[in-house]
Structure formats: structure tokens, C-alpha cells
Amino acid sequence: MHVPEKADVSSLHRQAERRLRSRKEYVIGIPTLQSTEQNGKAVADTVNILSGQGMRAWILVAAYMALIFYLSSLPHPDEELPKFLFEKLSDKLLHAIEYAVLAVLCYRAFRRAAGPFAAGYAVILAIITASFYGATDEVHQAFVPLRTSSWTDWVADTVGGVIGAVGAQRLIEHGMKNGIS
User: In the chain, count of helices (H) and strands (E)?
Assistant: First the structure.
């Protein structure tokens, strides 16, 4: 039985890479035109996304969305929350704050745990996610007894999402510029 020497193996490897490049075939969804180093980085990025840190980022988003859903399910949320929130702050400001926090969590998750493409669009994806969830929340509230749905609440949710996502981006960029991560 012939065991190929190391030089033979690397020669075979180079031949295989040339054939794949000439045909522009794809292997496991990754273009073979990429270098081995790029393929390794892509695999490492995927592993990082699925790692504990990546999952924690999305678990925080899901938990906060569940909290919003729960609060929206209450016929009288003012009975469950501190009174000063409703006495000192307007309803629209509360909506904006609630969805600013959601957008910050979404920005963080898109930036850290959704891959390089999503990280580049983290601000817009966070805004879209917060706005869409705000719209579904308003539809949900239309079916809750003693609650009403309002397009102005959705606008406040979206404005809060914009403030949260842009604010998070600016804070992170400022921290990176100053060497804080």
C-alpha cells in the first residue's frame, strides 16, 4: 500500500484547489475562491455566533421582548408598575424608553452575534427590529381587554428604537476610539 509523502499531499491539495477555482464551485456555502485563511475565519465567525456569548446576546433580546409582551398583556399595567412612571412621564416617553432599550439590546446582538454582514448593518437592523416589534405589540394590544392600539404609540416605539440604536452605536464607537471595549 502506497502512503503519499507530505510533498505529494500538498501537490494534490494545490491541484484540487486549482480545479475548484477554475470551476468556481462552492464548498459548504463558502466560495472556494477564498483563501484557506479566509475560510478558517468564516468558520471561526460561525462558531463565535453559536457560542455562549452570541446566544446570551439573543437570549437577552428575547427575554426583553417577552417582558414587553407580558406588560402589553396586562389590562392595567399601571397597577403592576411603580406609580411615579405614570404620574411623571408621558405615555409616549415611556414607549420611547421601552423601545430604546430594545434597540440597544438588538444592536448589541446584531453587532456581536449575527455575523460580519449583520454587524455592518446593526443600526438599521436594530431600528427595523424595534419598529416591527412595536407594530406587532400594538396589534397585540388591540386584542387585550381595556387596552387600545395606537399608531402614535408605534411612532413613539420607532423613535425610541432610532434613539437607542444610534446612541448605542455612538457610545461603542466612542469607546473603541478611546480604547475602551
Answer: 9, 2
